[in-house]
Structure formats: structure tokens, C-alpha cells
Automatic annotation (TrEMBL):
Family annotation (Pfam families): GGDEF (PF00990), Response_reg (PF00072)
Keyword Coiled coil recorded: yes
UniProt keyword Coiled coil present: yes
Organism: Pyxidicoccus parkwayensis
Transmembrane intervals: none
InterPro entries: CheY-like_superfamily (IPR011006), Diguanylate_Cyclase (IPR050469), GGDEF_dom (IPR000160), Nucleotide_cyclase (IPR029787), Rev_trsase/Diguanyl_cyclase (IPR043128), Sig_transdc_resp-reg_receiver (IPR001789)
Identification of the protein by name: diguanylate cyclase
Length: 347
């Protein structure tokens, strides 16, 4: 291009775009011809871009890792790694964990040679040297706008993914709250009854043992009347925590109502269920809670609990309701026999 024509082209480019929204974008020019690199820089300089240079494919990959350019103008024919090979590497690593999306405009002195191959490998545009600087400027702008849109889309998708994760987290929190007793942190009665039906059906289907335990804190009304309801709440929480630590992870413990707790013990036969109940009862009996307003010298309040347990398969327990009733009847039998004991339903 003659000097006069070049000056006219630069002046037209300056009037056409005094910076604009693409100013400050990084353009990597990859060419083994310093004169051509200088020519491209001078032609695009009025747009306010930031320029990086590389003179072969290896330098280009290094510059991409360091600068993360918004656009690459790359010669096809270079020593070592050529433009087509570098383009293949860039596009193969275009995910968020790699280079991300970077538009590539390939440049060549040969008319159609390699054009189809370059575009098939993911090059976003193709120019044949010598090219008009106004055309180059227009194509660069087009590719940079595409980059801006793609970056915005990636950011929106990232924000949407973050919002979806937050929504899922809050949904899980609400689900947990709907299943949880606020005072003790145990499951609530509604969730327990859902699981009871599920576990009973599974037990019948596979013939697996399933035990149900009902627990009642002895003389709880007296505790409330003597020490007040806040202390009664403290007792409930202590008993719930103690019972929970004596059960397995697969066991389901819930607050059934008032001072009653209830537990499902999957894969647990009568003998093992009785051992579990005794372990829980003994742990509760060893608790001693300081009464409210004490100075540390008062006798701790001793707690006891009565437990009733029933197990299926059993000839007389043909439904989940029957299993629940049997455990409840056994609980009242334990209380009637003097409390602080376990009573087991006789199959």
C-alpha cells in the first residue's frame, strides 16, 4: 500500500471510530514478519486497542496464557507451529478451564490455500494479504463485538448457575425446616409418619426386621411445674441429644409430641432392639441437669424415661398403624410397671 493511501486509510479510521466501547480490548498479532505486524498495529491504533505481539506459534500460545487476548490476528505460514495448528490448539481448549472463547482471524498471502481447513478448525474469519485496512478494522470490530457478547453470555450463565445453586440450597433449607422439630432439632411427627410407611413397606417386601420404639420422659409435667417450662425445654433437648447419640446413622429419631420421642430401627430384630432401648434408657438415667437459678451447689435433677418397643415381621402386626399401636401399648405398660424401664411387645 502506498504511503498516501495508507495515511488516507488511517485518517478515515480515526474519524469513523474515536475509541468507542471496544477501546482497551487486547489484540494479539501473530506474524513472523515484523513489517506486517507494524502495519497492522498502525492500521488499528486509532481504535484504542491494546496490542500484544508474537512471532511464531510457540510465542503465541505463551502470550495467550499470559495476556488472555480478546482477539487473535494470526498468520497461517510461520516457522515451527503454523497458524492452523495454533488455531486447532486454541479451539480445543476453549472451555472455561482453558483459554475460553477467543476469536481468531487467520491471515495468509495465498489466495484460497488453507481457507477451508482454517475455518473448519474453528477460525472465525479469514483474510488474504494484502488486505484493505478498513476491511480489517471492520472485521476486527465484528469479532470483538462477538467476544463481548460471548463474555457477557458466559457471565450471565455463571450468574444463573450461582443463582440456581443458591435456590437449591434454600430449597433444601426449607425442606429441612419442614421436616424438623424446632426445639429438639429432631425430625418432626409428620416426616416420621411418612418414613414409617416407607420402611414398613420395605420390611414387608424383603422380610427385613424393623423395630419401632416409643420413649416418654417420666414425670415431665412435674418437672415443668416445679422448675418452669424453659427448664422443661432444656430437658427435652438433653434427652433428644442423648438418645440420638445412642442410635445409628440409619436409625430415624423424631419428636412425636410433647415429651414423647419415637424411633425407627431398620434391620433390627427384637433382641437387638431391646439392647438399644436399654442403652438409651441407661444414658438418660445418667443425666443430671442443674436446676434453673442454681449456684452450682444444688442437687442436679435426675431424669428417667420409659420405653415401649415392637418389631415386625410379626403375625399380629399387619400394618404400620398396628406396629405403632403395639409400641404405644408397650410404652404404657412400661410406665404402669413403675417407669424407668423398657417393655417389649410379645409377638
Amino acid at each position: 500500500m502506498a504511503d498516501g493511501e495508507r495515511k488516507r486509510t488511517l485518517e478515515v479510521a480515526r474519524r469513523a471510530s474515536p475509541g468507542g466501547e471496544l477501546s482497551g480490548r487486547t489484540v494479539l498479532i501473530v506474524d513472523d514478519d515484523p513489517a506486517h505486524v507494524r502495519h497492522v498495529r498502525e492500521g488499528l491504533a486509532p481504535q484504542g486497542y491494546i496490542f500484544k505481539e508474537a512471532h511464531d506459534g510457540t510465542q503465541a500460545l505463551s502470550a495467550i496464557r499470559q495476556a488472555r487476548p480478546d482477539l487473535i490476528l494470526m498468520d497461517v505460514e510461520m516457522p515451527g507451529l503454523g497458524g492452523v495448528e495454533v488455531c486447532r490448539i486454541i479451539k480445543a481448549n476453549s472451555g472455561e478451564d482453558g483459554f475460553g472463547f477467543i476469536p481468531v482471524i487467520l491471515m495468509t498471502a495465498r489466495q484460497a490455500a488453507g481457507k477451508v481447513e482454517g475455518l473448519e478448525l474453528g477460525a472465525d474469519d479469514y483474510l488474504v494479504k494484502p488486505f484493505d485496512m478498513l476491511e480489517l478494522s471492520a472485521r476486527v470490530k465484528s469479532m470483538l463485538r462477538l467476544k463481548v457478547l460471548q463474555d457477557a453470555l458466559v457471565e450471565k450463565n455463571r450468574e444463573l448457575d450461582k443463582a440456581n445453586k443458591e435456590l437449591a440450597r434454600r430449597r433444601e433449607e426449607l425442606l429441612a425446616l419442614s421436616r424438623t422439630d424446632a426445639l429438639t432439632g429432631l425430625f418432626n411427627r409428620r416426616y416420621f409418619e411418612e418414613r414409617l410407611n416407607e420402611e414398613f413397606a420395605r420390611s414387608r417386601r424383603y422380610g427385613a426386621p424393623l423395630s419401632l420404639v416409643m420413649l416418654d420422659i417420666d414425670h415431665f409435667k412435674r418437672i415443668n411445674d416445679t422448675f418452669g417450662h424453659p427448664f422443661g425445654d432444656q430437658v427435652l433437648k438433653a434427652v433428644a441429644q442423648t438418645a440420638r447419640t445412642r442410635l445409628r446413622e440409619v436409625d430415624l429419631l423424631a419428636r412425636y409430641g410433647g415429651e414423647e420421642l419415637i424411633a425407627l430401627l431398620p434391620e433390627t430384630g427384637p433382641e437387638d432392639a431391646l439392647k438399644v432401648c436399654e442403652r438409651v434408657r441407661e444414658a438418660i438415667a445418667s443425666l443430671g441437669l442443674e436446676p434453673p437459678g442454681g449456684d452450682g451447689t444444688a442437687e442436679p435433677v435426675r431424669l428417667t424415661a420409659s420405653l415401649g418397643v415392637a418389631t415386625v415381621p410379626s403375625a399380629d402386626l399387619a400394618s404400620a398403624e398396628a406396629l405403632l399401636m403395639a409400641a404405644d401399648t408397650s410404652l404404657y405398660a412400661a410406665k404402669g410397671a413403675g417407669r424407668n424401664r423398657v417393655h417389649q411387645h410379645a409377638a
